[in-house]
C-alpha cells in the first residue's frame, strides 16, 4: 500500500476557505501516487488557535467534509482528512474524518485525550469515548490524534481491535519535537505496527509547529521523515512486514496486562 502524508503549513493570514481549497488540490495531486493520504490535526483552523475554535466549528458534514469527500473521490484514494473542530449538540469535539476512494465517510474519531492541563483544548472540547479502526484493502489502521500519542494503553486497545498500523494527525509544538519522534517510534516498536504520524508546519497562535512528520515500520525503523516546512512524504507499507515482525519476535503474545 502506498501512503502519502501531507504536512500542511497553517498560516493565520490564509483564510480557512482558501486553505480548504489548497489542501483539496494537494490531495488531488496524489492521484496515481498513493492509495492512502493523511492530513494533520485541525489544519483548517490551527491546533493552538483556541480563540478561533468556536467561530470555525462546523458540523460533521460541513464545508471541510464536503471539500475532502470530493478530493478523495477525485483522487481515488483513502483519505484520513486530519481533524476538524466539530460542532455537536452542546459541545465541540476534535474530530477526525476518514473517507473511502468513493468519497464516502467511513469513520470518524473524536479525540480521547485533550491537551491543555485544564486550559485550551482540555476545557473547550469534549472528550471522545470510542476507539476507531478502519479496514483498508491491505491493512487495518487504528486512528488516534496528537496528544493520544503519550498514552500507550490507547494503542494497545487498537492492537486488540486488529490494528496493524496507526494513523496519527497532529499539531505538535516544535519545543517538544524530541518527544514526537521518540514516542512515534516507541508506539511502533511496542505494538509491532506501522506508525504514520502527520504533523503541521507553520505557527499557530504564536506556537511554532514541529513539522517532521514521520513514518515508522513495525521494527521501529524510520522509513521517512519530513523537515520543518510544508512537505509531502511518500512511503510503501507492507502488511507482511507486520505479520513477519510479530511472528519472528512474538512479544505481543507475552502480554499479561
Task: Describe the fold and architecture.
By secondary structure, the protein is α/β, with parallel strands linked by helices. The chain has one domain (2-254): Carbon-nitrogen hydrolase (Nitrilase/N-carbamoyl-D-aminoacid amidohydrolase, 4-Layer Sandwich). The protein has seven helices and 15 strands. It has a six-stranded mixed β-sheet. A six-stranded mixed β-sheet has the order 7-8-9-10-13-14, with helices on one face. Strand 13 (214-216) and strand 14 form a beta hairpin. Helix 1 (16-28) packs parallel to helix 3 (63-75). The longest helix has 15 residues, at 177-191. The chain is globular and about 50 Å long.
Q: How are the strands of the largest sheet arranged? A: 6-5-4-3-1-15
Global morphology: globular
Number of domains: 1
Q: Considering DSSP H and I runs of 4 or more, what fraction of the residues is helical?
A: 25-40%
What are the salient characteristics of this protein?
257 residues, alpha/beta, Nitrilase/N-carbamoyl-D-aminoacid amidohydrolase, six-stranded mixed β-sheet, 7 helices, 15 strands
Amino acid at each position: 500500500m502506498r501512503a502519502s502524508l501531507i504536512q500542511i503549513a497553517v498560516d493565520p493570514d490564509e483564510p480557512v476557505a482558501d486553505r480548504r481549497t489548497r489542501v483539496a488540490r494537494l490531495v488531488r495531486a496524489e492521484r496515481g501516487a498513493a492509495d492512502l493520504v493523511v492530513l494533520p490535526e485541525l489544519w483548517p483552523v490551527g491546533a493552538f488557535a483556541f480563540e478561533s475554535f468556536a467561530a470555525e466549528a462546523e458540523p460533521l458534514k460541513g464545508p471541510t467534509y464536503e471539500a475532502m469527500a470530493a478530493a478523495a473521490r477525485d483522487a481515488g484514494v483513502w483519505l484520513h482528512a486530519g481533524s476538524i473542530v466539530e460542532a455537536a449538540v452542546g459541545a465541540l469535539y476534535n474530530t477526525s474524518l476518514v473517507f473511502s476512494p468513493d468519497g464516502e465517510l467511513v469513520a470518524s474519531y473524536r479525540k480521547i485525550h485533550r491537551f491543555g492541563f485544564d486550559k485550551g483544548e482540555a476545557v473547550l472540547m469534549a472528550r471522545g469515548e470510542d476507539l476507531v479502526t478502519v479496514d483498508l484493502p491491505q491493512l487495518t489502521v487504528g486512528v488516534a490524534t496528537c496528544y493520544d500519542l503519550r498514552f500507550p494503553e490507547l494503542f494497545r486497545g487498537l492492537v486488540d481491535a486488529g490494528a496493524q498500523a496507526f494513523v496519527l494527525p497532529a499539531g505538535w509544538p516544535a519545543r517538544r519535537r524530541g518527544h514526537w519522534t521518540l514516542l512515534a517510534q516507541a508506539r511502533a516498536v511496542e505494538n509491532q505496527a506501522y506508525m504514520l504520524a502527520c504533523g503541521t508546519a507553520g505557527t499557530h497562535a504564536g506556537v511554532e509547529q514541529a513539522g517532521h512528520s514521520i513514518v515508522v515500520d513495525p521494527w521501529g525503523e524510520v522509513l521517512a521523515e519530513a523537515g520543518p516546512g510544508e512537505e509531502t512524504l511518500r512511503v510503501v507499507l507492507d502488511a507482511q512486514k507486520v505479520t513477519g515482525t510479530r511472528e519472528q519476535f512474538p512479544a505481543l503474545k507475552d502480554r499479561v496486562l
